[in-house]
Design a protein that fits this description.
The chain is of the alpha/beta class. It is built from eight helices and nine strands.
């Protein structure tokens, strides 16, 4: 099972999360590409840390929305979104190559991630951009999403992820962050959820429905308060349950 986290989301003198402590705990890092978060120096530091710790680098592409941290859905034309995704891929891949690393998968961020579950037009723009950059680049996303459906049709390797620290709805989508209880904080229950996802491929939704997920990767948000403690406990819990941790890519 892969364990991923959103990292490299600091910007200038503003710091987001404790990346130095998170990198040793994960097997894959979704690195911000400068549009929703991140900057060239942060990207460089993130790729260097990933390379040194043998952590796989993924391009965490998002809407061009620094002020909103990429959590505001934007209406964009096909060409606009195509260009923005292509730009972000090229930026992070260039930085990665400079330190001996490489971008080995793509995972959309925030509002773009959620919109690509249902928005076929935006999904087509994102997949087309990834296809144009690297036809064999793996894509990580929510099961059943338009992103993964179209990516698979285009010939990309697709991988499913689940979130150990987010609440689920009965249809398998995430509870919107605007709703109370959308982000989980109890470490014990989060570890139990992670082990259940890894060993049984299922998660319990807010209404009690058992949702089948069968993830290839589990995500822990690096910007959540107590993220390092949470990630440490999740990794220990998975290993104690006999789950071998390795990158899907």
């Amino acid at each position: 099972m892969d364990l991923n986290a959103d990292l490299g989301e600091s910007f200038g003198s503003w710091t987001m999360g404790d990346d130095a402590s998170m990198f040793p705990l994960v097997t894959s890092a979704n690195v911000a590409c400068g549009f929703h978060a991140g900057d060239p120096v942060t990207m460089l530091d993130s790729c260097r840390a990933a390379f040194e710790l043998d952590v796989t680098v993924g391009a965490h592409v998002g809407y061009r929305d620094l002020a909103g941290f990429g959590r505001r859905s934007l209406d964009m034309s096909f060409d606009e979104l195509f260009g923005d995704v292509l730009y972000q891929l090229g930026a992070l891949d260039g930085v990665a190559h400079a330190v001996g690393a490489s971008v080995d998968y793509v995972k959309p961020h925030g509002a773009l991630y959620n919109r690509l579950v249902h928005d076929a037009e935006q999904a087509s723009a994102v997949v087309a951009a990834i296809q144009a950059y690297d036809p064999g680049l793996p894509i990580l996303g929510l099961p059943g999403s338009q992103l993964l459906v179209q990516a698979k049709e285009a010939g990309h390797p697709v991988f499913v992820e689940a979130f150990v620290d987010r609440a689920y709805q009965a249809d398998g989508t995430l509870v919107p962050r605007s709703q109370e209880g959308a982000v989980l904080h109890d470490v014990g229950s989060i570890v139990e959820r992670a082990v259940r996802l890894a060993t049984k491929g299922e998660v319990v939704a807010v209404d009690g429905t058992v949702v089948q997920v069968r993830p290839d990767s589990l995500c822990i948000h690096g910007d959540t308060p107590g993220a390092v403690e949470m990630a440490t406990a999740v990794r220990a819990g998975l290993e104690a349950a006999g789950v071998e941790l390795e990158s899907f890519a």
